[in-house]
Amino acid sequence: MQMRDDVAVLVDRLFQDKATWPALIKEIRAASGVDISTAEKIALSHEGWRRLCNYLINHDSACRKQAVWHMKHHGPDSLIALISGNFVIIESKVS
Hints:
By secondary structure, the chain is mainly α. The chain has one domain (5-89). It contains five helices and two strands. A two-stranded antiparallel ribbon has the order 1-2. The mean pLDDT is 92.
């Protein structure tokens, strides 16, 4: 899947503006017409968002709880893995 330039600019702007995760996903979906799963992959293809999410899922209890739910719900298709006791965002395939 190829990410459009306007969506990439949007994702970067929302990162710079310190948008919330729900707002980010909502904006990506509105701009590109994709489903939630694809919007999450697009968001996590951004280096800044991926780095922030990696930090938060390991340091914020609410984010960690969401990470566990995501892994249970998505199983082998999860965007998150548990490696050596740490949650890690798996590299997104969106370019």
